[in-house]
Amino acid sequence: MLKQRLNLEYPLAAGKPDLLWQLLSTDHGLERWLADSVVEDNGVMRLTWGSPYGEHHTLSANIVERQKNSHIRLQWVDEEEPEAYWEMRIGKSELTEELCLCVVDFAPAEDIEDLHDLWDDNLDRLHQSSGF
Q1: Which of 3, 27, 45, 68 is the most exposed place for a label (fewest CB within 10 A)?
Q2: Which helix (H) or strand (E) holds 61?
Q3: Percentage helix, strand, coil, to 5, in the chain?
Q4: Within 10 Å of residue 127's Cβ, how many Cβ atoms?
């Protein structure tokens, strides 16, 4: 089943791109807003939602590309479509010239709306945890 590409752009409060980069590209930064536990080991991010000692869900993603203060691209280890990935990129809004987070992700057509909602929720947590 071919997945559709989802492109999102989230405006961010004024901040330093290098601080944002830490929140996007490190296991400790991602734990603040994306997952309950994140461990990076040999180019693989293992993300866990829920209690590690109770009910939880863990997925692993290969780090495909990481360019400091620019973007990180990951691909789920069990991804069947070679062109499907998820990426977080630090950018500037074309309209306002302000800092923004550009997200690319892929999902089956029937899941695109849910994926959009998931990223909205993730960005709410990023705003709450960091002020961005």
Answers
A1: 68
A2: strand 56-67
A3: 25, 40, 30
A4: 14
Structural domains in the chain, CATH included, are 4-130 (3.30.530.20)
Give 31-39 contacts, CB < 8 A, sequence gap 24+: 32/125, 32/126, 32/129, 32/130, 33/122, 33/125, 33/126, 33/128, 33/129, 33/130, 34/122, 34/125, 34/126
pTM for the model stands at 0.93
pLDDT band at residue 115 using 50, 70 and 90 as cut-offs: very high
**What is the C-alpha to C-alpha distance for residues 110 and 113, in angstroms, rounded to an integer?**
7
78 close to 61: Cβ distance less than 8 angstroms: no
Please report, as a single letter, which amino acid is at residue 73. R
Mean pLDDT within 32-38: 96
